[in-house]
Amino acid sequence: MPLIKPECLSNSLLKKDQMKNIRNFCIIAHIDHGKSTLADRLLEVTKTVSERDMKEQVLDDMELEKERGITIKSHAIQMDYEQDGEKYVLNLIDTPGHVDFSYEVSRSIAACEGALLIVDSTQGIQAQTISNLYLAIEHDLEIIPVLNKMDLPNAMPEVVEDQIIDLIGCDRDDIIRASGKTGEGVDDILRRIIEIVPAPKGDPEAPLEALIFDSVFNQFRGVIAYFKIENGTIHKGDQVKFANTKKEYDADEIGVLRLGMEERKTLSTGDVGYIISGIKAAKEVKVGDTLTHRDRSCEKAIEGFEEVKPMVFAGVYPIDAEDYEDLRAAMEKLQLNDASLTYEPESSAALGFGFRCGFLGLLHMEIIQERLDREFDMNVITTVPNVSYQVHTTDEGTMTVYNPSGLPASTKIEGIDEPYIRAQIITKSDFIGQVMTLCLEKRGTLLKQDYLTTDRAELTFDLPLGEIVFDFYDKLKSISKGYASFDYHISGYKPAKLVRLDILLNGEMVDALSSLIHFDNAYTLGRRMCEKLKELIPRQQFDIAIQAAIGAKIIARETVKAVRKDVTAKCYGGDITRKRKLLEKQKKGKKRMKQVGNVEVPQKAFLAVLKLD
């Protein structure tokens, strides 16, 4: 059956006929298992991208993604493919692989009926593969297992196939052997997508019901929302509304997502496309909202979208206080493009006005900081990251504290509960001892240990989230020579013996460097922070005392010595009292200076505290 363009659709029969030739699928895999390269081959084979436009990681359009070789944003693209004389429309959504971007993956999965599960034949199943697979199974997606990187000499197809069979219970013949680099197996993947992935279900004649799964901001056209139609049909010029925000607009332009955006007059059930309706304010579009017609609305909004739960909190402040409003605008546009970022205004004595931001993890925080700099030219200071604690007080009951400075007086605190995570770590057998030592140092509890194969084990730990946000992931990668993979989810709150560690410069507290920490680790961290700050704070004309304190008790101290002019240089010989007199005079001057001088903490000092080793 020839592909009928949406412009020509005139009745429900034609719409349903075309619907059966639509396939919506996403790619899920662990970071660096070759999904972006395989996506490039799919686009090449279906001739979606011309040879002239073809480049590596064609869907990763952010400079940052290409530099780091990781996918940060989900990317949707439509491909045409012909099989046995029938023409099919394939909508691919490429998803990130890092644990910090699992929210992006959950949104993509909600807009699909099938998923390619890609496993690197040289590395085998990793923790994030398992986590994303469970997400897909929860949404009843058809899973197509693919063994990637078969062209590499160290590929272990039989071993990794056994792991996949154990994980999803498929037959060995169901696993497609492929290579994103050479293009091996790509035709088999396309054939399997058409055979196995079901066509979208829904009624083109029903009231419009479309799921918003992503959005971007364009400075000339406003907010562009990406959607997948579950039921109904939308025409250019229709009056539409968002079910949750209750905002109403005209559909100025609708279309499909090819390499660029291609305009269409009509989109129907099963289609993935975009809508431009002149929305200027970023907060008017919520990812996960339902798009419907103003006059003929659907009965209820689409369910199944979770609210994002930030794990790591940090203050983000403009270096120049005048840039506060620009930073607010940049945050709004970033949140539109990255729905997992949360923020609220806050102020700090040391840094002025800024925002308290919630991130999914440390990599997410780093990426947001980079994007603020590159996309919005915003140079910001980020404070020490921490997590949310539940504080039980004597007078106000239980309160949630995100910031150490929000902690009530110690006399009013009955107890503090900190968030715990259930962590799955998959590692080679050689590194089990070192991984266990690291987790136990971080106050972890080993729950179980399973051997997936003779030389790969899965360890399950209960760990405090506050111990993870500093340097856990980096250390895990170092001790396992890059082999260990890590995935986690919040398991609840447990009581903890926590204290607030303050850093004082010349007796004045720097609230941006305060942190809530377990009592047993406070002395060590306080001493290391003082030593690090001594290296980073530039010398002044007076001595600077750097102190770490718990309440009124000083637990560590370092001094940055003053820059001193050699006032005795002109004294050649003579009585010692002449030299002493000059030194005493200099000492008084330094004392006066100390009273009026203030200490500037450089940006790199805030960052260095995160990377204490």
SSE blueprint:
Layout: H1 12-19, E1 22-28, H2 35-45, H3 63-68, E2 75-83, E3 86-94, H4 102-110, E4 114-120, H5 127-138, E5 142-148, H6 157-168, E6 176-177, H7 186-196, E7 209-218, E8 222-231, E9 233-235, E10 239-242, E11 248-250, E12 253-257, E13 261-264, E14 266-268, E15 272-279, E16 290-293, E17 312-318, H8 324-337, E18 342-348, E19 352-359, H9 362-376, E20 380-382, E21 389-393, E22 398-401, E23 413-428, H10 432-441, E24 445-453, E25 456-464, H11 465-468, H12 472-479, E26 485-496, E27 498-505, E28 508-509, E29 515-518, H13 519-536, E30 544-550, E31 553-560, H14 576-596, H15 603-610
Parallel strand pairs: 1-3, 1-4, 4-5, 5-6
Antiparallel strand pairs: 2-3, 7-8, 7-16, 8-15, 9-14, 10-11, 10-16, 12-13, 12-15, 17-19, 17-20, 18-19, 21-22, 21-23, 23-25, 23-26, 24-25, 27-28, 27-29, 27-30, 30-31
Helix pairs in contact: 8-9, 13-15
Key structural traits:
613 residues, alpha+beta, Rossmann fold, Elongation Factor Tu (Ef-tu), domain 3, Alpha-Beta Plaits, 5 domains, six-stranded mixed β-sheet, 27% helix, globular, disordered N terminus
